[in-house]
């Protein structure tokens, strides 16, 4: 992984690669809570290499990612990028 992170999503893609998106910056295993990430990268198991891809439009952490049959993805929900988690009533 080119950027250490935690609380990210990891999605298995149809070609066997893994898309990792968002999360929080992690420096030497220490979480930096105020730094949510918008960056994304793909791991290719055949080459055992990471490659950056287009970033999310908004930095997200503690989100979910869903892969659709046509190959598109939805990344939704998240903890706010700064401050404590917010609770919403339905």
* Alpha-beta classification: mainly beta
* Main sheet characteristics: 4 strands, antiparallel
- Succession of helices and strands: EEEEEEEEE
Roughly how many Å is the radius of gyration? 14 Å
Distance between the termini: 37 Å
Shape: globular
Our count of helices gives: 0
Number of domains: 1
Stretches with pLDDT under 50, minimum 5 residues? 85-90
Brief characterization of the structure:
This protein is an all-beta fold.
Main features:
about 90 residues; mainly beta; three-stranded antiparallel beta sheet; disordered C terminus
What would you note in describing this structure?
With 90 residues, the chain is mainly beta. It has one domain (5-74). It has strands at 5-6, 9-12, 18-21, 24-27, 30-36, 40-44, 49-53, 64-67, 73-76. A four-stranded antiparallel β-sheet has the order 2-3-6-7, with no helix packed on it. Strands 1-4-5 form a three-stranded antiparallel β-sheet, with no helix packed on it. 17% of the residues are buried.
């Amino acid at each position: 992984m080119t950027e250490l992170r935690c609380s990210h999503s990891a999605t298995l893609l149809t070609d066997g690669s893994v898309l990792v998106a968002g999360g929080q910056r992690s420096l030497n295993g220490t979480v930096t809570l105020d730094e949510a990430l918008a960056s994304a990268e793909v791991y290719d198991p055949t080459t055992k290499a990471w490659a950056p891809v287009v970033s999310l439009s908004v930095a997200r952490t503690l989100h979910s990612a869903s892969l659709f049959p046509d190959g598109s993805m939805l990344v939704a929900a998240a903890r706010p990028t700064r401050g404590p988690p917010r609770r919403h009533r339905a």
